[in-house]
Amino acid sequence: MSSTSALQGWLELREVKGLGPITYSRLINRFGSPKAIQEANFSSLVAAGELSPSLAQSIQKPLSDNTVKKIQQEIEAVEADRFSILTLTDPQYPARLKTIADPPPLLYYTGSLQDCDQQALAIVGARKGSHAGRAFTRTLSSDLAALGFTIVSGLARGIDADAHQGALAAAGRTLAVLGCGIDRTYPPEHHTLRQQIEQHGAVLSEFPMGTRPLSFHFPQRNRIISGLSLGVIVTEATLKSGSLITARMALEQNREVFAVPGNVTHPLSHGPHDLIQQGAKLVQEPWDIVEEILPMLEPSFRENLERLHNEVETQATTLVLGPEEQHLFDRIPLEPISLDELITQGSYSSSEVMSILLSLEIKGLIKQVPGLQYVRISIR
After folding, report:
1. To 10 degrees, what angle do helices 267-277 and 242-252 make?
2. Looking at beta carbons, which pairs linking 290-298 to residues 24 or more positions away fall under 8 Å?
3. Which stretches of the chain are assigned E, i.e. beta strand?
4. Cα–Cα distance measured from residue 13 to residue 27, given in angstroms and rounded to the nearest whole number
5. What's the sign of the alpha-carbon dihedral 80, 85, 86, 92?
6. What does the CA dihedral 72, 74, 75, 79 come to, rounded to 10 degrees?
7. For 334-372, what is each residue's pLDDT tens digit?
8. Where are the domains of the chain?
9. Which of 51, 43, 59 is nearest to 23 (CA)?
10. How far, in Å, CA of 89 to CA of 25, rounded?
């Protein structure tokens, strides 16, 4: 993390009106540091920085007392270990994120960032996902995290939360990117989930302390979700979903895009199906993703991944179902189905169905939900 003395210049430059991430990054590349930018004369800024005269004047204009006070409050918060801030030139700044056209010059975070987070995959989707979509997301996220991938998402309700929870269930790492200040949690009911993420990953934001979760912040934060990742997986989304914005940004950043197919009549399948029609890789199981990005992975990670995959395949083959178990399991969808339906649809007695369901539950393939209903929890 940058020292607080050096950090002040970064924060001051961030407050210049009209200075966006692309121009900020260009200035840092040309001049080397905020201090050098602030000390450059007007003509140097316009010429070397390719700035408009009005923006060059804004950079050299003194900040208001309120702004100076706000910057000091942020520095004091960093010194009190409430959060950390990485600058674009910090060695710890995520290398993959640094390669996008408009990386955030300042990256606030709580928790910890590790080198292994370079092997990251983003999973995004609808805030009101279906039961099937959310169950699939949790399983997919858990399987990918178990293989060593860091799961990135946006802490939002629905699919995002399931992506984080799936990774945590596998004791894996996960990163959450906020659309508000690092000192806020949105949605507020995800406070406990945030704490869990901080223990097994990090929560990040580019927005100053105190920034409210305004609607236009979320498309902006989506470029960070994709920028941190090797690829973006969309599990459920409507055609006008923010998840498709993330997918589009991923393409612009030369990231891979994946989509999970669903019921053709369900609105939440329209987004993934549209992506598949445009060339996104169709995903049915984790290896559909892994085989696509395998050449992009570090050699040691790739070798370990292939070993783990072989172990998982071996374990899967040892879980043998009897013909009655397989027959009943094949009729249990990712959406809840009632016990009565399972009994009337089959040729087994009610006691036999109950016994088979108990066996499938013990093997971790299904679970009972309220209303004497059962749902598949494995994509086996």
Report:
1. 20
2. 290/147, 292/231, 292/256, 292/258, 293/121, 293/230, 293/231, 293/256, 296/230, 297/119, 297/230, 298/118, 298/119
3. 84-87, 106-111, 120-124, 150-153, 174-177, 201-205, 231-234, 256-259, 281-282, 337-338, 366-369, 373-376
4. 10
5. positive
6. 130
7. 778 888 888 888 778 888 888 888 888 878 788 888 888
8. 4-77, 115-313, 323-376
9. 51
10. 10
**C-beta of residue 84 within 8 angstroms of C-beta of residue 110:** yes
What is the C-alpha to C-alpha distance for residues 210 and 217, in angstroms, rounded to an integer? 13
Structure tokens at 178: 């906020």
Q: What is the pLDDT of residue 3?
A: 63
Tell me how long the chain is: 380
Residue of 96, 140, 97, 100 lying closest to 272 (CA atoms): 140
Please identify which residue in the block is written with the tokens 């589009």: 248
Return the structure tokens found at 120: 């990251």
pLDDT tens for 280-336 read: 999 988 989 999 998 888 888 888 887 776 766 655 555 678 888 888 888 888 778
Q: What is the pTM of this model?
A: 0.85
| Top-level class of domain 115-313 | alpha beta
Check: CB of residue 357 under 8 Å from CB of residue 328.
Answer: yes
- What separation in angstroms does the CA of 307 have from each of 80, 148, 293, 312, 313? 43, 12, 16, 9, 10
Phi, psi of 111 (to 5 degrees): 90, -145
Contact call for residues 201 and 173 (beta carbons, < 8 A): yes
The domain defined by 323-376 carries CATH number 3.30.10.20: no
Q: How far apart are CA 362 and CA 379, in angstroms?
A: 16
